[in-house]
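Why predict the complex rather than its parts? Because the way molecules touch one another can change local conformation, and only a joint prediction can capture that. The input here totals 566 residues.
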Amino acid sequence: MTAPVRIAQLSCGADYSGVQEEINTAARSVNGEIFFPDIALKDIVRDFDKFGLEVRSPDLKLAIARAMALVEGRVDADAVFIATCFRCAEAAIVRNELRRYILEHSKLPVVSYSFTERTTSGTLLTRMEALTTIARRRALLAREVQEGITLGIDSGSSTTKAILMKDNRILGKGWMPTGEVLKSAHGVVDTALAEAGMKLSDVQAIGTTGYGRFLVGKEFKADLVQEELTVNSKGAVYLADRQHGPATVIDIGGMDNKAITVMDGIPGTFTMGGICAGASGRFLEMTAKRLGVDITELGPLAMKGMGNRVPMNSYCIVFGTQSLVNALAAGSTREDVAAAACHSVAEQVFEQQLQEVDIKEPVLMVGGTSLIEGLVHAMGELLKIKVVVPPHSQYIGAVGSALLASGFIKKDGTDAGH
Amino acid sequence: MAKVFIYPATSLILSDMVTRFGHKPLGSAIAIRERVQTPGLESPPLQITPEEPKKGLAWAAVEVPAGVRGRMSLYGPMVEECDAAIIINNADLAFGCMGCARTNELVKFLLRQKEMPRLELEYPKNEAEGVQFVAAIKKFLTEIGGKK
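Output of the joint prediction:
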């Protein structure tokens, strides 16, 4: 067994909120080991003064001193987990500044999180997995070219996708709404294989990602089972041909949203939101249903409307939908309502998530929702930049999986096939 | 014998002084010891589970961060139980430290609200102040019925 990834925890309140064991469990499940950087009392006072952020909570002062010890190499770590209480303003400032400080002054991957007493290890799992993946698989994530014949399967909460690739080209695609996880996975794989004119036994390596990655990975005996944060960012820069330099990846999913900053194809910092469905693709699905159009028609419809003509005074999916219904009843056009829905989702992601990552151009929007033109337009307006949607953006996770899986092809040609 | 809440609640020096004068100190050590010695909990190191922030709702509303409410589930009952309090303001970290400034503000406020003997002192900055500091604590603990 490989040595655990040593994750330094910088936190305030985790033990008193009753979530420390949840953090430890999440780390253990991905072969990570949480530890608290050990520093002397005199270092706390000195480093806190040197950092210059005048907070009052001693635990936050300690977190600052620990961050400086990591950056200055006085304590060794493979990754950093920053966690503070949700709703604490003082801690939120420290959390953001420490994340920025560590990223600017070291190569350590960082994830930050604000917890409540309801935070579970399951909620933290994907974040922890991404953290350990970046620390452990840096060489794999540096892969820029797909080789051999590989299959990528993205088992998402809303849709399941498969991509079959050969020698850096996409030969087959499969897409369907996620029903029974394994049945959907087999469905998309069969479609992709049929389009490529291949059999599963031709495939040399398989990668899986998304919510159902473990189950689907087991079913297909996958070589690579990896969370969607690293896989999607890899897929995004690959498809957008931006594998070198900085980029920001935004993926508004069916159940949660991801905002990831990337440098040379490797994620630096990321946020994953999933508390409110009003900021998800699900809200747009509901809007499309209420407007009586297919989800694929919502984007073009929104482009013809003006979102600011419709009052949206709630971010909640239930009350937000009610606002749209009220607007229709008051005579608003379907175009304006569609635009308002897109603007609402984009605004929430902008306010709640993009503030926690440092946006670097190009900004790449990926996932199924990136095909909703109105949403991409709304995001571009908020960010005041042109947002790039790479080709095949809805298959981003599957492409990333297929690309990374080719790192598992044996060079001696002894792959048994699947 | 009086039950004396000590602030900072982690101060071993304060705890020791209160004990020497025949009183019972109420601080972090007692609250944490109870939790650590309670069998059946699997939430190291402090054995605080997500239930504690819910208990903390008795002292802080739901919009208050979980860490504050979790801490209040430990300190709140002791604030209610105490007969007297010693509060040292701006103490050195080595003297005793309570991690969250918001919890500290709330604990001190609740102690000040109680009609009971209370001693508030600034942490001494030199030896002369240190002598006065100890003398003031000794006088207070004696006046509330402690050993001479």
